[in-house]
Amino acid sequence: MKIIEPKPALVPLVLTAIDQSNYCDLTGLSTEVIASAKKQSFREKMLITHRGLSGPAILQISSYWNPGESILIDLAPDHDVTKPIRSTNVRNITVARAAFHKLLPSRMATRWLELNGPQSWTNKDLADLESRAHEWKITPAGTEGYEKAEVTAGGIDTNELSGKTMECRKVPGLYFIGEVVDVTGQLGGFNFQWAWASGAAAAVQFSARK
Ligand SMILES: Cc1cc2nc3c(=O)[nH]c(=O)nc-3n(C[C@H](O)[C@H](O)[C@H](O)COP(=O)(O)OP(=O)(O)OC[C@H]3O[C@@H](n4cnc5c(N)ncnc54)[C@H](O)[C@@H]3O)c2cc1C
């Protein structure tokens, strides 16, 4: 029977040792972001934890992330964050901090600018800063694993099962339901719904067979 490689999903991400030392003393701070991986994006809260990143935006994107890949984080969705810097004659770190403090928790804004600030205050470097703020690239070291995951992605290939009854095509009388099947919902109750609905579908068929 074909099994899609299982992996933890809806799970906090762990940062590399360098990124942990850069950001994880900010644990507990959260902000609204758009987290993206491949063609998926989620606009939700992101939370800094003592080992990495969590919050709904990160849990959601973790289901689409694979080891070695990067995720992109828009720290200022819908905002032209460098506009206040560009539109003043006095361009310096104080003005930049004030601009970022409007959008991010102040300690996060200060730290992020220390580590990702512009080389100079030219329009070109400010344009680069604007891009970095909207596409902050993070390559996680891993996930917090099954211990902290809300679901398991992967499992029994759905092609092996009848979509109506959940009965195994190759082994009549054998049923697979819920999380063990390669069906993974996003946050919002979809995994419970899948477990109950697939269980009900199998139960109807199973009792009819008796
Ligand atoms: C912390 C957390 C929060 C979650 N929050 C949500 C949420 O808000 N909304 C949502 O939709 N989903 C949520 N989920 C996911 C959801 O709980 C699961 O997707 C769902 O419970 C899967 O149902 P299941 O029946 O397939 O598996 P399970 O609920 O895991 O049930 C499997 C059962 O089989 C038993 N079992 C295992 N091995 C054996 C064995 N060898 N013999 C006999 N029994 C065995 C286990 O003890 C268990 O009782 C959450 C999960 C976690 C961990």
Side by side, the strands of the main sheet go: 7-6-3-4-5-2-8
Q: How many E strands? A: 9
- How many separate helices? 7
CATH superfamily of the largest domain: Translation factors
Series of H and E elements: EEHEEEHEHHHHEEEH
Radius of gyration over all CA atoms, rounded: 22 Å
Largest sheet: number of strands, sense, barrel closure: 7 strands, antiparallel
Percentage beta strand: 15-25%
Overall description:
- The chain has 210 residues and is an alpha+beta fold.
- It folds into two domains: 10-143, Translation factors (Elongation Factor Tu (Ef-tu), domain 3); 151-209, no CATH class.
- Helices cover 33% and strands 21% of the residues.
- The chain has helices at residues 17-23, 56-62, 83-86, 93-101, 106-116, 123-134, 190-209, and strands at residues 3-9, 13-14, 30-37, 40-48, 52-54, 71-74, 136-138, 142-143, 151-156.
- The strands form two sheets. Strands 7-6-3-4-5-2-8 form a seven-stranded antiparallel sheet.
- Strand 4 and strand 5 (52-54) form a beta hairpin.
- Helix 4 crosses helix 5.
- The longest helix has 20 residues, at 190-209.
- The radius of gyration is 22 Å and the shape is elongated.
- The protein starts with a strand and ends with a helix.
- The model has no long low-confidence stretch (mean pLDDT 96).
- The structure holds flavin-adenine dinucleotide.
- Flavin-adenine dinucleotide (FAD) is lined by residues 150-151, 178-179, 189-192, 195.
- Flavin-adenine dinucleotide binds next to helix 7.
